[in-house]
Structure formats: C-alpha cells, structure tokens
Amino acid sequence: MHALRIDTNRVLHLTIIFLLVFSVVQVVWWLIDHRAYTNSVTQEIKTLYGYEMLAAQKMAAAGIPAAEIVKVFPHAEVGEAGVALSPGALMELEDIQERKDNQYTWESGFFLLVQALAIAVLWRGLRGEAEIRRKQDSFLAMVSHQFKTPIASLQLSLETMVMRQLSPERFQQLSRRMLDDLQRMQSMVSKILDSARLDRGRMTLNRERLFLAEAVRHVTSSLEETAKRDNIHFEVAVPADLEIMADPMAVDGVLRNLIENALAAMVPTKGGTLSIDAARKGGEMTLHVRDTGVGFAPNAGPKLFERFYRLDAGGGNAAGTGLGLYIVQRFMHFENGDVTAHSDGPGKGATFTVTWPATESAA
Amino acid sequence: MDTAANKILVVEDDLHLAEGMAENMRAEGYVTDTAYDGKQGFERAVENDYDLVVLDVMLPHMDGFAVCRALREKGKNTPVLFLTARGDPQDRVRGLEAGGDDYLTKPFHLDEFLLRVRAILRRWEWYKRSVAQPASGDALRFAGNEVNFRTFQAQSWDGSVHTLTEKEAMILKVLSEHADAVVTRDDLLEKAWGYEVYPSTRTVDNFILRLRKIFERDPHNPVHFLTVRGVGYRFIPEGGAA
C-alpha cells in the first residue's frame, strides 16, 4: 500500500517532467516557426513593393503627375531618374521584422527558463525522494534486524517454559532473562525515537540549572544491577556542587548512552572499572567516562559516532543498536558542545570526553 | 541412535539465545559447547569433533558464512545449521553455498529448532554408517572419476580435484547406493534433507547440475546422471544414453 502510493507520486512527477520537456520542444518550435513566418511575410511585402513600383513606373511613363502617383503608392519616390522605392519603407519593414523577432525570442526565452527551472526542481525532488526512501529502507532493515534477536530470545524462553517441566530456580532464571530482553527492546525503542527526533534537525532545549553529580547518580543507580552482574565497578568523582546549564533530558541522554556504551565494552572483558569525573575549566564543563573494556583502534574514534556504526567487539553482549553514541553526538551538537573518543588500542579501554560550553549564567 | 553421545557447538553472540539453545539441547541429552564470536567458534570447531555446529550468521570478528567456508577448507565436514535474523532467500542460497546444511530464521520455534537438529544428526548418522560399510565403503569409482566419501574429495576424469559439499556427497551416496535404479526426488529429499519437502525440487536439480559439471565429460549430454522426467534421477556408473 505504502509502496504503491510512493509509486503513484513518482509516476505523477515523471509525467509532469515529460509534459514539461514536451512543452519545451513546443516553445522552441513555436519560436522557429514564428521567426520563419515573420521573415516570409517581410519577403512577400518586399515583392509587393516591387510590383507597386512597376505600376508606378507605368503611370509615370503614361505622363501621370508625380503627386498623383505618390497618392496611390505612398512608398514610391518620384525623382529625375524615375520612380523608386523610398529607402524609409524598406527600413521600416526590416525594423518591424527585427522587433517581432526580438519579441518572440525574449518571450520564448522566458518560458524556456521557467520550464527548465520547473524540470530541475521536479527532478531534484524525485531524486531526493528516492534517497530518503533508500535511507528509510536501510534504517527499517537495520531496526527490524536489531529486534529479531531479543524477540527470538523471548520466544525461546517462553517456549522452553511451555515445553518443559522446570524447577522454580530455572523458572526464575528464564523469567529474569525475559524481563531483560524486554528491557533491551524498550531501550531500543527509546533510542530509535530519540535518534529520529534528533535527526529531524530542530529541537528546542529547555536549559535549566542542574547539578551534574545528581544527573550522573540518577543514571548509575538505574544501571547498578546490570553492572554488578557483569562484575563492573563504578568510580564516580563528580563534585557535588558542580552546576551546569543544560537541558535535563539531553544531559540524561548523553550520560545514559555513554555509560551504557562503557558497560557494554566491559562485558567481553568479564568486568572492569567504569570511572566518571568532571571539572570546570574556564567556564567550560568537561566530563570523562573511562572504561577498562575492549577499546578500539586509535584512529576509529570519530567513526564511533556515526549512525549504526558498531564495533566488532565480540563477547557476550552485542545487543547494541549502533545508535547510542550517535545520539550522544547529536545531543552535544544541539548543546553547542562536543564529544570525543579516545583509546590506546583494542583491549586497552576507552575514554569519552564531553564538553559543555561556558554559559553566562552558570560561569 | 544414541543421542547422548552427540556433541553440539553453538556459535551465537547473543548471550541469552546461546544459553537458551544450549540449555534446551542439553535437556534433549546432547552435550553442548558455546562460542560467542566467529573466531572463537571456528577455533573450537577445528579443535574438537562436533556432530553439529549451530552457527549464527551475523557474528563479531568473522561472520557465519566465513566460518563455515573456513571449516570446509580445513577439511572439517561437521554439519552446520545456520541461524540468521535476515530471512531473504539470497542468504539461504549463500548458506548452502558456503557448505551449510540447513538454515533457520530468527525468531524460530523451539520445536522446529530441535526437529532440525535431530534431522541433521540423523542424516549424518546414516551417512557415517553408510560410509563405514565394508562393501560399498567410503569410495566410489566410475568412468575415470574417483570420490572419497570420508574426505569429500573428488578427482574427476580430467584430473581436476574438487571438494564436495556435504549435500553433494550425500546425494551422490544415495544415488550410488541405488546405481542403475531410479531414485525419486522425494527419496533424495528425504535422505539428504531429512524431513517433509523443505527445499523445492528445483534445489535438487541444481545439485544434480553441479555433479554433472564435475563428473560428466559433456555436462549438457549426461550419461551418468540422468533425469527421469517427472520422477527423479538415475545414476549409471558405466554410462548410458538418456
């Protein structure tokens, strides 16, 4: 249904482009035709002038006075050498032809310009639409692919419960696993929504004064259980009185995605330490999130923030969407801030640095 | 068939899925091992003698197709059941080409998964038993062609050496066991795929075409692998007219 609608649109676009091209040909033809017509009319009048002069010469030969001849043939000039066409008549004729030619050229030129513009605009629109559709398709494929794994896991757990007699402990374990899968899907949905919203380009940030330490604590406390299970230890060193002027939702999005990313990086290394510190330097606020996880090749830093880029990390948890760091980067863009990633190499952990610009009220 | 002896390797990067599958297979009496990325999976599969590898396609470090191909190149003929989140037919073809046995799309039903595992193991068991028989044994010689059913190596009449996929070897095995007789498509499907009619009969045709290309002097005018229109195939070692 959806594809059909887009196709109709496309057909409509192409039809109009075809009609426009056709009318361009028509205008060009019209121009050539009119110029030829004007030219032939001029020639015919010149021939008529010739006949007029012949008649006038005959009248002069018959002895009719010059005044009488000029009355009948106004373009004739009667002199001592005989009767001739007045040069003004020819000049006037050529003048009219040139004026008409110019008029047609300018008019059709204007139409051609308008048509060319219309074709260009339609063509661009058509191509842009195709590009958007391609992006949407690959986004959709990516997203549905991401969802299939937790769905498969959920289904497997449920069918295991239905099919087998389970001990209460096993039942508990499977239920926890299912809740975890649901949580994963939920976080994917919110990430997809976030990135879609950030993608649209415009976003109104409601900046307010907030304590950074509190925002960090809010995120870490919700992830504490996961971290403990994966043998990850938090080390937070954010001064309690550090204030920041920023949108609370954006701050939460940035912190949550950075911390989740760091946690995921330490699953394959069977745990480690996640340290978070922050400081104000000359108005600018800098926050570091350090992990002792899988790291990455030192030159891969900027690529990490691309949409759907996923590190070939390996190990138990590849549940990422490839959207988390992209969201961080977009949020920081809207905050006029910056985010960078650094690692000494695979297996050597990573440091993510976020910088918020100085704001008058918070400085 | 004693399923308790069957050892299965699960290569899947999603922790929950890997554990869920392994737990269920253990409940069925199989012995399981798990690997969480392609490299690890490949290493385990090379080092150990598994009866089956359940292999995810999208894996870190090395994708499932590459793992399967690398295993075949190493001469490891362990059957492979591919798992993938993408359901397009192109992937199924790629999986079979890489030397896979079967293909399951995520999300899947537990009973179907177990059914396919059982079917692959049963086929493998039949093949191994058949190859071990002293009479027909592990080799086939016909019209200058030589096939080793143990190593899957084949030398054709022109001296070229080929490595057969497991499916090709199985089809050849079934046909050679019924030399000169007509084997129906359904019989071939049942023996080489193991349940219902999962691939189209066109798929079987494609395998026969491959065998002709390797073993026939003129693949367009076959004398060994004959199609019996509407019924199935006939393998004539000495060669005969269509």
Instruction: Detail the poorly predicted runs of chain A.
Output: 313-318
Taking all residues together, what is the mean pLDDT of chain B? Answer: 85
Widest sheet, order of strands of chain A:
4-6-7-9-8
What structural category characterises the helix and strand content of chain B? alpha/beta
Give the radius of gyration of chain A.
41 Å
Major pleated sheet of chain A:
5 strands, mixed
Tally of alpha and pi helices of chain B: 8
Helix/strand order of chain B, N-terminal first: EHEHEHEHEHEEEEHEHHEE
Shape of chain B: elongated
CATH classification class of the largest domain in chain A: Alpha Beta
Biggest interface, chains and residue tallies: A-B, 27 and 26 residues
Strand content of chain A: 5-15%
Give the integer mean of the pLDDT values of chain A.
86
Number of E-state strands of chain B: 12
> What is the fold named in CATH at topology level of the largest domain in chain A?
Heat Shock Protein 90
Please, could you describe this protein's structure?
The complex is a heterodimer of chains A (363) and B (242). Chain A has 363 residues and is an alpha+beta fold. Chain A has 3 domains: 2-136; 143-199, Helix Hairpins (Orthogonal Bundle), CATH 1.10.287; 208-356, Histidine kinase-like ATPase, C-terminal domain (Heat Shock Protein 90, 2-Layer Sandwich). Helices cover 61% and strands 14% of the residues of chain A. Chain A has 7 helices and 9 strands. In chain A, strands 4-6-7-9-8 form a 5-stranded mixed β-sheet, with helices on one face. Chain A has a two-stranded antiparallel ribbon with strand order 1-2. A two-stranded antiparallel sheet of chain A has the order 3-5. The longest helix of chain A has 77 residues, at 87-163. With 242 residues, chain B is α/β, with parallel strands linked by helices. Chain B is 41% helix and 20% strand. In chain B, a hairpin with a 3-residue loop joins strand 11 (225-228) and strand 12. The relative contact order of chain B is 0.09. The mean pLDDT of chain B is 85. Chain A binds chain B through residues 145, 148-157, 159-160, 163-164, 177, 180-181, 268, 312-319, and chain B through 13-17, 19-21, 23-24, 27, 36-37, 39-40, 58, 60-61, 85-86, 106-111.
